[in-house]
Write a structure and sequence with these properties.
This protein has one domain. The chain is 65% helix and 0% strand. It has 6 helices and no strands. Helix 2 crosses helix 3, helix 2 packs parallel to helix 6 and helix 3 packs across helix 6. The longest helix has 33 residues.
Length: 162
């Protein structure tokens, strides 16, 4: 029962965590720079527009995209951990004569400090499944920027040849 309650709280906490960036559609500078600086080369090298977008975003700029996803995930986990710690502090204030370590989590005696103490113990696992995408998956804004730049490059090249 205690494990099920802990899992439910973790899932609820991560699902309701605020995004790491206020404007979720904005691209991090390294991602935008990578896409912009490589779009012309990719447009020249890959003839199919869809394949060019995929190559640019998923191969050429995969590292800055994964780095930004890791930063965002770390921010979400920090917010979650901070919220658990605050809940623990509130619980301790409401139970001043109770040793939090001696209370086991069950239906009669909920102990939020147990969750707070283990919030960072993910064993190196990034809980990105709850954030909506994996670290290597490109944000839609990156795909849109790459597609727009590659299309603009193709159209400019077509206009020059006609």
């Amino acid at each position: 029962m205690r494990i099920a309650a802990a899992i439910a709280l973790v899932l609820c906490g991560l699902a309701t965590a605020a995004p790491a960036r206020a404007d979720d559609t904005a691209l991090a500078a390294p991602i935008e720079q990578c896409i912009r600086s490589n779009a012309i080369k990719v447009a020249s090298a890959v003839p199919n527009l869809n394949e060019a977008v995929d190559f640019l975003v998923e191969k050429i700029c995969a590292k800055p995209i994964a780095d930004e996803a890791a930063v965002q995930q770390a921010n979400v986990m920090k917010q979650y951990s901070d919220r658990l710690r605050k809940n623990c502090d509130t619980w301790k204030a409401a139970h001043p004569n109770t040793d939090a370590a001696s209370v086991s989590g069950n239906d009669e005696s909920y102990n939020p400090c147990q969750l707070a103490d283990t919030a960072g113990d993910s064993g190196g696992i990034n809980w990105t499944i709850f954030a909506g995408r994996t670290p290597s998956e490109a944000p839609p804004a990156a795909v849109a920027l790459a597609a727009q730049l590659l299309l603009d490059q193709r159209l400019a090249h077509m206009n020059q040849t006609h």
